[in-house]
What does this fold into?
Amino acid sequence: MSWITHTLTSSIGKKLLMSLTGIFLCTFLIVHLSGNLQVFKDDGGYAFNVYAVFMTTFPLIKIISYGLYALILFHAFWGLYLTYQNRKARSTRYVYENKSATWASRNMAVLGTVLLVYFAVHMGDFWYEYKFGHLPYTKYTEQLLTGQIQMEKMPVGYTQEVKKVETFNEIAQTRTVVIKDLYQEVKEGFTNPFLVIFYLISMAAVSFHLIHGFESAFQTLGINHKKYTPFIKFIGFWGFGIAIPVGFAAMPLYFYLKSIGIV
It folds into this structure.
């Protein structure tokens, strides 16, 4: 095991840990975005709330989620640690600025810090409230033959032991679901323009972070070839640098514009 310890504590080993955790977190972003896009369904938040219950109650998903939270924190603090170590190792600053280095590559620690703050705010506003707060409950009645959904807010103070209670009426061919309503929490939260601006700035930081980090991770892993590098750059820029941050940014912007009557 000594060679593993030696490798992981070496300069390249430390960068390798950053690369592997970063690439794994990129896959998490894809899954997380695909689930969160349920908020755009015209069903009063039904699909999104069902998704939220599944993600917080299915045992395997719960275990993976807590592992991801730990991995996010490790990736963030490990990146800050490497930045500190790199600066400490330099006896003097470079006299000239590396013109080939992008703004994102020179400020990865700053971007990572912004994202760490964003993670804390995001978890506090939604994850913590959903797990431990007093969110409202909503009843959805779905017509099984037509797919039509009727929504009814439960009385203030209503609660139940589980996040979701589902019943069927075979005669009326309906399914009734009384569920903890995270959708309303998200909708109301993004009526605050300051929170929306903070999220948009954070998504800009995600964009810059991923544009540089995605390509850099593959370079660290030794995947740097004229056949593959253009494709990696394309996916890193348009997929992770543009599409994913825009997808996440669209949610707070959508709810805010909806709250002021523009959409």
Observations:
- The chain has nine helices and four strands.
- The mean pLDDT is 86.
- The longest strand covers residues 137-143.
- The first helix runs from residue 2 to 9.
